[in-house]
Please model this.
Amino acid sequence: NFEPRRSAAIPGYVASRQVPLLYMPVRGGPEARVVEWLECFGGVERNFVQKTLRQWKRAHPGHRSFTVLRHPVDRAWAAFQEARGAGLSPEQRNIIGRVHGVAFPKQGASVDEERAAFIAFLRFLKRNIAGQTGFRTAAGWASQTAVMQGFALFNGPDAVLREDRLAEGLGWVCAEIGVAMPPLRGADPSGLDALMTDEVEEAARDAYQRDYMGFGFGPRPKAGQAA
Model:
């Protein structure tokens, strides 16, 4: 394993002001959806350092921390969408395209063009995670295994939830601290179902072998199916 080690990423944590819940986001996951849910308890606190995080914990006895895992294909798709947008500079996209063969499709591209670009991006991610591209491994590209190992440098989460059973998982966390479960909005459609083939799944598994093995992910389910 040549993947760069991750830090605990404490500045990215999001805590409730009113209830003892701390969210430790895995970049590339359903972060906006979870933070929106957490805000239902009366606002959130952000931008922690170790000192302020310890202060929050002391002020919220009985606290529970949690994170949310996302299926590797969906997470890689989120990284792909970010990379083709504001996530990379035009120069970086040009290098990835010229050196690593990722032809980011333009608006109005066909499904086949989108799929081919995504597969090329997954193959780039495999090399990037292995430290073979000269590009920094962004937090949203890193394996979820490495992110979790980074969390453990400070404190690992009490609960590791799954996006496909998010409402159930958050309900359990609420029961742990004795509060009612606020409403959780549904997931936004990703448009990924139309692109899925065995080749896409195989490329994702190749890039994120540690996550498939370590967290027991199976083939990506279609919309409405459980993982």
